Amino acid sequence: MGVAKLLEELEAGASSGRYVPICGPVKGKLLGMLASIARPKKILELGTAIGYSTIILAHTAPQAKVLTIDIGNEWTEEAKANFKKSGLDNIEFRQADAIKETKKLKGPYDFIFLDIAKEQYAAVLEDCIRLLPANGLLVADNASWKELKEYNRLCLADKRLRHLLVPIEDGMALSLKVSD
Ligand SMILES: C[S@@+](CC[C@H](N)C(=O)[O-])C[C@H]1O[C@@H](n2cnc3c(N)ncnc32)[C@H](O)[C@@H]1O
Question: Which residues of the chain have pLDDT under 50?
């Protein structure tokens, strides 16, 4: 099955008879365009769910190795099966708590997609900045949520970042690392 068809199936399956909080086709298109333009070598994704956004990232940036981390839930086995179905060979899944795991990672990751529990974004921010090289991009989903007020405030105040909240659906925040 092609990746486009698989993504369509995952979109349909995420909202019929159950709810899976995938970023969806509109923000997914922006995410894929950003990954395509950025041409990253290494991508870090925090928050996998069924692997929908992971597959977008791995497909639109085929030159990149994608490490996706999830604490684990009822969708974990499904994500692994979806990675197999995608035929993509540039995805590594790791089951771990992103807050602990990002502290252990060595960078650089030139593209990071942040999509874990919303109240935990601020807790991983410093490690995400550490892992990014100059010109590395941090993309945070659901950025218009009130739970992300503190995260956006921290990003805006941080001199190492150029931060922009893009008002697409429930928001995507882009933070470009401009200096160490
Ligand atoms: C919104 S879903 C991810 C959706 C996915 N990025 C997409 O757009 O297809 C959030 C995921 O983050 C995971 N998660 C929440 N807190 C986490 C943490 N501290 N560490 C790792 N994963 C976490 C949940 O288990 C869940 O699968």
Answer: none
